[in-house]
Amino acid sequence: MTPTTYLGFHLAFVVPPVLGVVAAAYFRPTALWGRVPFVGLGVILALAVGYTTPWDSLLIQWGVWSYGEGVVWASANAVPAGEYVFFVLQPILVALWLYNLDVPTDGDLRIPIRTRLLGLAAGVAVAALGIGLLLSGPSTLYLGAILAWASPVLAIQWAFGWPHLLRARRAVAVGIGVPTVYLWAIDRFAITNGLWALSDTYTLGIAPLGLPVEEAVFFLITNVFIVQGLVLYLWLVDQWPTVASDVRRAAPSALRGLLPPADPPVATTDADERRADNPDRTTT
């Protein structure tokens, strides 16, 4: 049965794979599970909702995309309830998929400043491209808005640790690629079946295999945010003890009390206790 509402779309196409990756991560001994991975997911969820909501609201009010009759049952700040649900379900889907993979956390956190500046420069280049597209005409507004909105996050992530993302490139590529292709497919289904539609005025009108190029870029970029953010977070947590004493010595005395300890206490969760009999379980 073809879903006719945003809620029906989630129940048919988003909730089942989310449950699948949750079950896989829970039952697979080698999957990441526990306090550290879920704190990372919580941070990603908060950022996804907080950073995406105003941008999404603005584009909807501009008329960049719209929804079919009866698809939306409630909205806030012009953003449908189904969009807010998507802001939560997509990171869970992508994160738990990533946690089923082998995510490397080796490599020194101490990276030369020139190397960090290269990552920052790449983020600035994305910003320049996005702003250029925004200013070049109405047909590139949506694509330009995506790139301009994405650039601060990309600049921070790449400046912080692009060499580690290269080291972890297999996990990064698979972590991004598989859920992106799936989200492309279900987004194309939603557009084809009239659940939502993109403006002809603010898009390029290029739709390979029926998927507008702007939507393809959007889902790719958002999954890049999630995967890169979590890969860098897991690396930071694992490597922090090796640099903590150096950071503390270099930090002003007023800030030292705000820094986490070099060897933070490990909180035991219910999930950890259920896995206490399985020493091979990865909890990070």
From TrEMBL:
Residues 256-284 are annotated as: Disordered. It is found in: Membrane. Pathway: Carotenoid biosynthesis. GO terms for biological process: carotenoid biosynthetic process. The keyword DNA-binding does not apply. GO terms for cellular component: membrane. Keywords: Carotenoid biosynthesis, Isomerase, Membrane, Transmembrane, Transmembrane helix. Its EC number is 5.5.1.19. GO terms for molecular function: intramolecular lyase activity; lycopene beta cyclase activity. The chain crosses the membrane at residues 6-27, 39-64, 84-101, 113-135, 141-160, 172-196, 216-236. InterPro entries: Lycopene_cyclase_dom. Its main location: membrane. The keyword Transmembrane helix applies. Residues 271-284 have a biased composition (Basic and acidic residues). It comes from the Archaea. This is Lycopene beta-cyclase. The lineage of its organism: Archaea, Methanobacteriati, Methanobacteriota, Stenosarchaea group, Halobacteria.
